[in-house]
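Fold this sequence, please.
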Amino acid sequence: MPTVSVHASQPYEVLIDDRTIDDVGAVARQTAGGTRALVISDSHVAPHYLARVRTSLTDAGYQVADHVFPAGEESKTLATYGACLEAAARAQLGRGDVVVALGGGVVGDVAGFAAATYMRGCHCVQVPTSLLAMVDSSVGGKTAVDLPQGKNLAGAFFQPSAVVADTRALDTLSDAFFKDGAGEVAKYGAIADEGLFARLERGLSRSDADLPAVIARCVEIKRDLVEADEREAGVRRYLNFGHTLGHAIERLSGFTESHGCAVVTGMCLISRAAAAMGRCEAVVPQRIDAFARTHGYATTTRYSADDLYRAALSDKKRQGDTMPVVVAPAIGRCEVVPLSLPDFRTWIERAL
């Protein structure tokens, strides 16, 4: 089964069906070590997998504690992060011990941030249970929580010791959450691999025999960008395709719009604007819009240009009076276009 090696500041492997959830303890023992483990999960995932992960860690010789918080983006807060730190302290974790992030993107971000900052950094093993987390958020070391002013504004770059992606966990994922993750897969094809995007145009399901290979290809693309630019000063920004307006849509909806679906809408909008401004081929928005319509994603939004502009101004990618906008000049290629804020406002208008 696919295994992807990531040679970042902390080298590690992403094990895609090479290990199962029942092997998390053995993987943690081999890659992180330590004597104590804290499993952080949420109220959706814990009933399915927490007992198995605890047993695996215990069998590997760990003293195990757990902390479960309510599922959903609304839990991605400083309060949840603080509660995770307090759980680590109650469990008497030391700097050589391990936090196990068991869940989707929210769990991975919050637990990873707690591991990055508890005692100035302990170990972390990511165990993603959603498609979005497997292809994206569990890899690359970006950890964060949201602030009232915007998404992911407090966080740290902190690479895990290992990632255990067991695609059997996707069997308990709702169709809506699987679709959400497939939106992020489409992003990878749009920015770096036309063949992958063409594969997504045909649709993706959890029963597809090539699903582990599709996940691995996304991880390889992210791996390459992270190795070239770990702290997002250059090409790693390509991964933000669709995210500036996608994050704005998420925030304006009160996070009732899921991340992957909002990103697909953001891809549609920014590609439409880029074509209108002569920065990409006309076929790019045509193909992205067709993909979105075929697979049930929104190609536009109910929010006004003023709403989107104001919400996007708090985006962490903003650089003073400049908004770096990621565009795909062609499917499978990517570049960053730095726009003045007035020009960015004009692009939003052209997108709607």
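The first helix runs from residue 24 to 31. Residues 229 and 236 are 6 Å apart (CA to CA).
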